[in-house]
């Protein structure tokens, strides 16, 4: 009887320890972004005036106990098409797609979590209008993630910022969200996302764009 109880205690302890050093998560949101500003590529000009669209965004992350090897997070925002004026009485449609691969290190892991890393944003824009063309770039960005999880509370707050700036050009991608832990690792979340893209005479592009909008979805963490 004593041996059985001791074995059960050891198994429970080992399981709890494994959960603190190995983590996996997935999330999916309905996302309602709007875009404003100018997107000029080669000879194509497009002006957006708060065009609203419906989209979604998904994310995955994996954390592990291996030293010196970073954790990894992947975020994907699928092709979302916005309509804007071409400046001569016509309309261009521009589709934006983003995939972010982010290796990061967990600096703090307690009531306050702090992650630092580098994010590689694969940015794909497709233009349909007076000309058809495509812009495809991979942009490295700094990454900071913060989470606040009060003990014994079903609520948590998380935020992240990705940013790079050089010689007047900049790209930023910021999110903040509130989570309500429902049951067995499942949580309901709602938040807001803000992106800014400023490029001057680079990649045949001149642009000053802002994407922003709310999102709501589910997340699961193990």
Summary keywords:
222 residues; mainly beta; Lipocalin; ten-stranded antiparallel beta barrel; 12 strands; disordered N terminus
Question: TL;DR of this structure?
Answer:
The protein is 9% helix and 73% strand.
How many discrete structural domains? 1
Q: Find the CATH topology.
A: Lipocalin
Helix/strand structural class: mainly beta
Uncertain residue ranges: 1-20
Shape: elongated
What does this structure look like?
The chain is mainly β and 222 residues long. It has one domain: OMPT-like (Lipocalin, Beta Barrel). Helix content is 9%, strand content 73%. The protein has 1 helix and 12 strands, in the order αββββββββββββ. A 10-stranded antiparallel beta barrel has the order 1-4-5-6-7-8-9-10-11-12. The chain is elongated and about 60 Å long. Mean pLDDT is 89; it is low at 1-20.
